[in-house]
From TrEMBL:
Family stated for the protein in its record: Belongs to the sigma-70 factor family. ECF subfamily.
Organism: Mucilaginibacter ximonensis
Domain RNA polymerase sigma factor 70 region 4 type: from-to ranges: 105-155
All copies of domain RNA polymerase sigma-70 region, residue ranges: 12-78
Gene3D superfamilies: 1.10.1740.10, Winged helix-like DNA-binding domain superfamily/Winged helix DNA-binding domain
Keywords linked to the UniProt accession: Sigma factor, Transcription, Transcription regulation
Official protein name in the record: RNA polymerase sigma factor
PANTHER family: RNA POLYMERASE ECF-TYPE SIGMA FACTO (PTHR43133), RNA POLYMERASE ECF-TYPE SIGMA FACTOR (PTHR43133:SF45)
NCBIfam families: sigma70-ECF
Length: 165
């Protein structure tokens, strides 16, 4: 196996779970998330030689994934998303067990956030360190903490609305 393939395999194994979560957070759909995951790593593979360790590799991959997801959302224009999401979420709810119900609910709420908020909170859930999130989202760490606080408040409100249903 060539050196590049070995490196790529390690990168994929280390990052694919996180990136799948990220893509799922954007789409709320397993198939779409898988497609976006593959597209992201295809870009990683194509650009691996250009990667010069300026940023941590996971930061670089997140950036690629986020751009891939945003491009997807824009190209889909997502008119169908509003009609789709509740149904997808319902189907998901049936598939998941009791203990996963809250997770499904959380993703349902995340889907209602703005795109920039979605990516930040997904990284928080994936326990990406704050300096890295700041780097990826291009905002200062101070601003990031404020933003995360606001996003969590928003999520809590959305979550409570669901709880009352």
């Amino acid at each position: 196996m060539a050196h590049k393939e070995i490196v790529f395999k390690q990168i994929f194994e280390a990052n694919s779970k996180k990136i799948f979560h990220l893509c799922y957070g954007y789409t709320g759909d397993d198939d779409a998330a898988n497609d976006l995951l593959q597209e992201t790593f295809l870009k990683v593979w194509q650009n691996l030689d250009k990667f010069r360790n300026q940023a941590m590799i996971s930061t670089w991959i997140y950036r690629i994934a986020v751009n891939t997801c945003l491009t997807y959302l824009r190209s889909e224009k997502r008119q169908a998303k509003d009609e789709l999401t509740p149904q997808i979420a319902e189907t998901k709810m049936e598939e998941v067990s009791e203990k996963n119900e809250q997770v499904a609910m959380l993703y349902k709420c995340i889907a209602k956030l703005e795109e920039s908020e979605r990516i930040i909170i997904t990284m928080v859930l994936d326990e990406v360190p704050y300096p890295e999130i700041a780097d990826i989202s291009g905002i200062s760490e101070g601003n990031l903490r404020v933003k995360i606080h606001r996003i969590k408040q928003k999520l809590t409100e959305l979550y409570n609305q669901y709880e009352r249903l």
